[in-house]
Design goal:
By secondary structure, the chain is α+β, with helices and mostly antiparallel strands. Among the domains are: 111 residues, no CATH class; 31 residues, no CATH class. It is built from eleven helices and eight strands.
Length: 353
């Protein structure tokens, strides 16, 4: 359950074997982090990575988003594991925000090109110096300058072929507000310092797709008990793993079938491949096991519910940062008085709990 602000009750943290199956999904209530939702993500990461290591898994590289707490943790506690950042939201974070400002008219048209250039740079370069040299080249390209000089990099020109005169997209003007905004983004000190994390050219796009799948099972606008929330996340993981190998649909002529999707943030149309419908072949086996477990239960459903050892309600029965006062005290403090039209002299007390 998540309302605006730092008020999330749960955190779901997923460990995926790169772009394939879900290995582990951790759900944590903020009552385990002193009711501070801002440190939930780090706590889940520690618990999940520790679980995989305890199972004997040899982990060579961990790919996450650019989370400061996790970056510090990896440096300090796991120096032998390569830590990389995914570039999943590069367009949204780097270009679109600036392009939506009126003074930067024309910059939004270069969003896709800048993102593609960043990906190409990450795939091509193996050192920070070469990465910086090629990445900065986008500042020259957008103003129709295709060669430059950088003393610390071997990259000094664009690597595209000859440009044709038939262009629908105009060049930016050098030192214009749009070009200055792009320069501040490309030369952002934090971005440049994080370049070593991007040299392996990783993406967390598949994991982001799974996060959307979780919302089908556990909506952010509904509050679940801890066991129900954990089970719903596990059902989402089963759904993902059970359908990851679906075949791509084809048309009658054998060509791949696509569907159009409009991206609101970038104001662009894109296409995605259509896959075969989900079959949920694992559900009958799940139902069989559930029924057998129920039949083997000697106590029955009338037994008194006992909270599990890791249930956050053992820590605290409420999420508020302060203990609740007696109910009658709250009733007394929230008393409201209204007069009815039938008897203006008679006061009726409405007690609100």
């Amino acid at each position: 359950m998540d309302s605006p602000g730092h008020s999330a009750q749960y955190c779901s943290y997923t460990f995926m074997e790169y772009t394939t199956k879900i290995l582990c999904i951790i759900t944590l209530d903020k009552r385990f982090t002193e009711k501070k939702s801002t440190i939930l993500e780090k706590a889940c990461f520690i618990k999940g990575l520790g679980f995989l290591i305890e199972k004997g898994m040899k982990i060579i590289e961990v790919v996450t988003d650019a989370h400061v707490q996790i970056s510090s943790l990896m440096k300090k506690n796991y120096p032998d594991i390569k830590h990389s950042f995914g570039t999943k939201n590069l367009g949204k974070k780097i270009i679109i925000k600036a392009g939506q400002e009126k003074k930067n008219k024309g910059l939004l048209d270069w969003t896709k090109d800048a993102v593609n250039h960043y990906w190409y740079t990450a795939q091509t370069c193996t050192t920070k110096e070469d990465f910086v040299g090629m990445w900065i080249g986008v500042l020259h390209h957008v103003v129709n300058v295709h060669s430059w000089i950088l003393p610390y990099s071997s990259s000094n020109k664009c690597e595209h072929g000859p440009l044709t005169s038939a262009r629908e997209k105009g060049w930016l003007e050098k030192d214009s507000p749009a070009h200055v905004s792009l320069r501040s983004i490309v030369l952002d000190k934090r971005l440049l310092n994080n370049i070593p994390y991007y040299l392996n050219c990783r993406s967390t796009a598949e994991l982001e797709n799974f996060q959307n799948l979780i919302l089908m099972y556990a909506s952010k606008r509904h509050s679940y008990t801890p066991p129900a929330y954990r089970c719903r996340n596990l059902l989402a993981a089963l759904d993902h793993n059970g359908h990851i190998d679906r075949e791509v649909m084809t048309n009658k002529d054998g060509s791949i079938r696509y569907q159009r999707v409009f991206q609101k943030k970038s104001s662009r149309w894109s296409v995605t491949t259509c896959k075969e419908p989900k079959q949920y072949s694992y559900v009958p086996e799940m139902m069989r096991k559930i029924i057998l477990k129920r039949l083997d239960d000697a106590i029955g459903m009338n037994q008194k519910m006992v909270l599990e050892q890791d249930d956050p309600r053992r820590v605290s029965s409420h999420l508020a940062p302060i203990p609740p006062p007696p109910t009658q005290q709250i009733v007394h403090e929230q008393r409201s008085r209204f007069r009815t039209s039938v008897d203006m002299d008679k006061t009726i007390d409405y007690w609100v709990e």
